[in-house]
């Protein structure tokens, strides 16, 4: 798709005449594992430190997260005191859905400073960090292992998928489950969802590629569902 300004980084009225930096926006397909991704990676802190989107401001997303929480509990019943971790927890909306039905041992992880702090102030314990080895070690030391770990629209944003997945394994209990939602590559292609291709979205996932990747991490993909979120998930 050529070079493009970084998404969500808007010019102010005072600097409209300034030239914006251009970053390549080209998709690459791996012939070996079939994964699709961008190769030009924008510094994560530049993308996420002042991220302002709040889940709670989107009623459809709030309803979706309530449904996700209930489906997770139906699929994998856990004790009320078991730890639940949400990666990319934003303002804590998903974890609030668990708390509302009696699961109070929740923990969010999010790199956006303002939103993570706001979530913590609103009663959702949140670590303001990326989900990496350092964060995983901290969680394990202070909270133990989790029975449920979630990550909604997070795996599209990660350059080091293996590193994040290893961090998740560090804090996941032996019988725990990891539930993640990603934009579906087939829908991106069939529906020509060009608007979903931008610098925050480094990876474009398919079931085949994701299943193969998880096997390399000693994890197994046990269940897949399709949904309408993001044009197709």
TrEMBL record:
InterPro entries: Methyltransf_Zn-bd_dom_put, Methyltransf_Zn-bd_dom_put_sf, SAM-dependent_MTases_sf. SUPFAM superfamilies: S-adenosyl-L-methionine-dependent methyltransferases. Pfam families: Methyltransf_13, Methyltransf_23. Residues 1-45 form the Methyltransferase putative zinc binding domain. This is Methyltransferase putative zinc binding domain-containing protein.
């Amino acid at each position: 798709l050529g070079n493009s300004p970084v998404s969500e980084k808007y010019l102010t009225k005072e600097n409209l005449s300034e030239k914006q930096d251009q970053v390549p926006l080209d998709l690459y397909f791996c012939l070996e594992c079939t994964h699709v991704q961008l190769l030009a990676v924008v510094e994560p802190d530049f993308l996420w430190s002042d991220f302002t989107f709040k889940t709670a401001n989107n009623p459809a997303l709030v309803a979706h997260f309530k449904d996700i929480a209930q489906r997770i509990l139906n699929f994998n019943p856990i004790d009320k005191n078991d730890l639940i971790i949400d990666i990319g927890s934003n303002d804590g909306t998903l974890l609030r859905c668990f708390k509302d039905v009696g699961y109070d041992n929740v923990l969010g992880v999010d790199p956006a400073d303002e939103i993570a702090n706001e979530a913590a102030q609103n009663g959702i314990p949140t670590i303001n960090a990326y989900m990496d080895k350092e964060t995983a070690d901290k969680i394990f030391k202070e909270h133990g292992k989790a029975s449920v770990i979630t990550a909604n629209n997070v795996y599209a944003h990660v350059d080091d998928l293996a590193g994040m997945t290893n961090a998740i394994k560090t804090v996941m209990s032996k019988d725990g489950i990891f539930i993640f939602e990603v934009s579906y590559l087939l829908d991106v292609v069939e529906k020509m969802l060009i608007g979903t291709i931008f610098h925050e979205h480094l990876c474009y996932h398919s079931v085949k590629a994701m299943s193969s990747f998880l096997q390399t991490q000693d994890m197994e993909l046990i269940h897949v569902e399709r949904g309408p979120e993001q044009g197709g998930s």
